[in-house]
Amino acid sequence: MEVRYTKHFLNKLEDLFSETEYQLRYEKGSFKSGYCLLKDHKIAVVNKYYTVEGKINCLIDILKSIQIDPTPLSEKNQKLYLSLLQTEIQL
Known about the structure:
This protein is of the alpha+beta class.
C-alpha cells in the first residue's frame, strides 16, 4: 500500500484508532520517537507539533507495534489495518 501524506489519510488513521481499544491523544512533548505509548492504560500520545507526515508515520509505527484484534473493526478499517501491516514507511 502506498502511504499518502494528506490530511484525509491522517483522518482515516484516526478513524481506525477510534475503533480500537487505544485512545489517541495529541499532546506537546519531547518524545524521542515522536510518540509515547502507554500500553497499560492503552493510550497513544503523539507530538501535536508534528507535521501531517510526521503524525502519519507515528500512527503507522504505533499500529504496527501494538496488538489489535481486527474482527471488531469495520470492513474498511480492517482492510486499511491489514494493508498497513504490510507497508514499509519510506523516509
